[in-house]
Amino acid sequence: MSRVVDQYKRACNSLAGGVSSSTRLNHAVGHAMLFDRAEGCRLWDLDGREYIDLCCSHGATLLGHGDARIRAAVERTLDRGAACSYENELHAELGELLCETVPCLERVRFTGAGTEATMHCIRLARAFSGRTKLVRFEGNFHGYHDQVMWAAAGELGQTEPPLAPISTGVTPGIDQHLIQIPYNRPDLLEQVFDRHGDEIAAVICEAVYYNAGCVLPTDEFAAAMRRLTTDHGSLLIFDEILSAFRMCAGGAQEYLGITPDLCTIGKAVGGGYPISVFGGRAEIMCRLMPEGDCQHSGTYNGHCVSVAAAGAAIRAFREPGFYPHIDVISERLCGGLSKLFEKHGIPGRVQWLGARFGIYFGIDHEVRDYADAKKHDRDMMLRFIAAAIANGVYFHDYGGGAVHHGFCAAMQVADVDEALSRLDAAVATLC
Ligand SMILES: Cc1ncc(COP(=O)(O)O)c(C=O)c1O
Questions:
Q1: pLDDT tens for residues 365-411?
Q2: How far is the CA of 183 from the centre of ligand 1 (A)?
Q3: By alpha-carbon position, which residue is closest to atom 6 of ligand 1?
Q4: CATH match of 68-317 with 1.10.3720.10
Q5: Which terminal residue of the chain, N or C, has fewer Cβ atoms less than 10 Å from its own Cβ?
Q6: Residue range 326-335, pLDDT digits in tens
Q7: Relative to the CA of 211, which ligand 1 atom is closest?
C-alpha cells in the first residue's frame, strides 16, 4: 500500500494525465511523486519517506524549501491583505534590486511563468527591431509557447535544418521565422548572419546551457553572439530562466562577462513562489505599453506575494558568503559523484557550474552541444534515478533527452556526505 501511488491514481481521474504539468511525471518511477512536506534540502513523500532533494523544484528552490526569510516576506504581505493585481512599493524595490544585480537590466517587467517571459521578450525584440527572424540554438529550451516549440525535423547537428513542432497543436508556419544552428558554433553563427543579417530580430540563447545538463559556451561562441548581433542591428537575448543566480548573483551574463540587450529570469528569482522577469536596456523596454506600442499585460503579473518573496530571495543571494558556499557544496557533491561512478566502474560523467549539474552516462568527453548530450545512455539514467529515489535521493526525469539536476543553498557538507553515501548504495545497483 502506497499513499503516493494511490493518490496519483486518484489524480488521474480528475487531472489530465494525473498531473498539473506534463513534465511532472517522473519517468524513472512511472508516476508523479507526491510530497507531503519539505524543509531545507529535504522532502517527505505522502508515505513519510524522506529524500535529499537534488531536483530542487526544477531549479526554483535555490534557497531550499521553507526558507525563513522568504516565509517572513510572504507573511508580511499576507498580513497586508495581499491586494492582487495592484502595485505597491515592493514592485519598485524588486525592480531596483534586479537592476542593481543583473548587468543588462535597466528596466524590468514581471510575468508568472518563464514561458511567458520568453514569449514577451521575443515579441518585444521583434517590435523594437522591426524584423521577424529569431536565431535559436539546437536543443536550447525556452518554454512551452508556439514561437519556440520547434526542433530539427531530421538529423541533429545541421545548420538551418527543416524544423518540426515539438508538440501537436503548434501553429504551423512559425518555423519560417526561425533559424536554428548547433550550440557552440561561432563559425555557423557567422554564416547565418552573412546570409540573413538584416532580417534577424534577435538571437536567443541559454547562456549557460543547463537544459542539456550543464554545457558551457566557449569564449569564442559567447563573444561571437555579442559581436554579430551588434554589427547587424539585432538583439541578443539571454534566456536565464534557469541560469540566473545559479553561479553568481548577476547570472550567466556576469559569469561570462557578456551583457545581452535583453534577458529572461525565472525559477530561483521567486524563492519558490511563481514569478519570472524579462528586462534589459531602457530604450528597448520603453517600447512596452503604456509608454510604447508593444503589449505585455496579465492579471496575475507581479503578484505581490511573489514580488515580496523575490525581493527576499535576491537579498539572500547577495549576502556575502552565498556563492562561496555554493562552490564548496558543488565541488563536494559533483566531485564526489564523479568519484562514485569511478569507484563502481560506471561510465558516468558529471559537468557542473554553481548549483546545477548534468550527469551523462556512457559519455567520456566534455559535452559541448545538444547532439553530444543526446548520446547519453538514457536507460542507465532512468535506472540510476530509480535507484537514487529508492535510496532516499530525489532526482527528476522529464522524459526527454539529457536532464538537469541541482542542489539548494540550505544543503550543508553533512547533507552532501549523507547524499553521497545513499548514492553509493544506488550506484552499486547499476553494476
Ligand atoms: C531556459 C528556460 N527557459 C524557459 C523555461 C520555461 O519556464 P517555465 O517552466 O517557468 O514556464 C525554462 C523551464 O525549464 C527554462 O529552463
A1: 999 999 999 999 999 999 999 999 999 999 999 877 667 899 999 99
A2: 18
A3: 143
A4: no
A5: N
A6: 999 999 999 9
A7: 16
